[in-house]
Predict the structure.
Amino acid sequence: MRIQMSQLRPLLISHRILMTVPGMKDFEKTGSTYNPDAWISYEQDLALDPYTTFWGTSGTALPCMGAFSYTHSKLNKTITVGRFTSIAKGMKVMGAKHPLEWASTSPVFYN
């Protein structure tokens, strides 16, 4: 699914989600550095908790993200990020989904 930034900004403000650059601390300015006509993609089941932050242009595809988490990297919209997670610039998600219910996510346990 997609939404234009001009339609998304009021939702970001009301749900206290930041799309920001260094120095911006006002929720009223969230998303203002993006072109109002820019398209933002997301999955139908998108869930963003309050106080989620997307730095720079990392918010062009929105993944599910828990409260107090932030990313400096563009993430695939199909992943889920938990609460209190910090993601640095240049991080990439690779490979298939790992079974979190197992003792380890190591490939040693796959076969």
The two ends are 36 Å apart (CA to CA). Residues 5-14 form the longest helix (10 residues).
